[in-house]
Design goal:
Elements (H helix, E strand, L loop, with lengths): L1 H8 L7 H10 L7 E4 L2 H11 L3 E6 L12 E5 L2 H15 L5 E6 L5 E10 L3 E8 L3 H5 L2 E5 L4 H10 L17 H17 L3 E12 L2 E4 L2 E5 L1
Antiparallel strand pairs: 1-4, 2-3, 2-4, 5-6, 5-8, 6-7, 8-9, 8-10
């Protein structure tokens, strides 16, 4: 893929969030509506096209932990706040040479994680589990070797301890398991077709109105 080849030419070992999501989208994995901006003029054009509320994130291949660095602001609802946050993020990034990602605000109480690790012996392995802050705390995940069939993906969903979170609970719709299974299958396909990819981390995969949407993504190269 051009994005990956260009990153390798530049000697980079990871893609920016925007680049990573472009690859996910090319494999029909649902992502947030988003635009990359570098100026106030581009910012206002993006907020107009996407619509408030929005999320602003510092975006650079050198930045992997945006939240810890104060480079993520949620639920921005007007031009004045958007411009102020934009300027703060650009200032905080300093010499990182980054841009700002303007993203639709996706709401959902359930957060999952999907991803891929390339095992030296077995090759690309697909991962699924509870996402958000619970990924590291609970380590409630399941793995399968790529390529996956739908049956494999469905089994992975049932194997995690928190599998009931996928059901219709507390007024929330049941998770669209067909879409979720296709995401896991496609993540495996990305790994099979792109040997340069060492790791994929889609976290969180937010469930919005029953549908999974990739809100953040990290892609690490060999």
């Amino acid at each position: 893929m051009n994005i990956i080849e260009e990153a390798k030419k530049q000697g980079r070992t990871s893609l920016s969030e925007f680049e990573a999501k472009q690859i996910l989208s090319s494999y029909k994995i649902p992502i947030t509506k988003e635009m990359l901006v570098r100026s106030s003029e581009e910012l206002f054009d993006a907020t107009k096209k996407i619509g408030y509320p929005v999320v602003l994130k510092g975006c650079s291949s050198d930045i992997t932990h945006k939240t810890e660095k104060g480079l993520v602001q949620l639920d921005i609802r007007n031009d004045e706040d958007a411009e102020s946050v934009f300027n703060d993020i650009i200032s905080s990034m300093g010499s990182d040479n980054g841009s700002v990602l303007v993203q639709e605000m996706v709401s959902g109480k359930r957060e999952l994680v999907a991803g891929l690790v390339r095992d030296p012996q077995f090759g690309p392995c697909v991962m699924f589990g509870l996402g958000g802050i619970f990924t590291e705390v609970l380590s409630d995940v399941s793995f399968r070797l790529a390529p996956l069939k739908k049956r494999d993906a469905m089994e992975m969903m049932g194997e995690i301890k928190g599998h009931k979170i996928l059901n219709a609970i507390r007024g929330m719709k049941e998770v669209d398991r067909d879409t979720l299974s296709q995401i896991l299958i496609n993540v495996g396909q990305i790994g099979l077709e792109n040997e340069s990819i060492k790791e994929i981390d889609i976290n969180p995969l937010i469930i919005s109105d029953g549908k999974p949407v990739a809100v953040d993504a990290l892609l690490v190269l060999q």
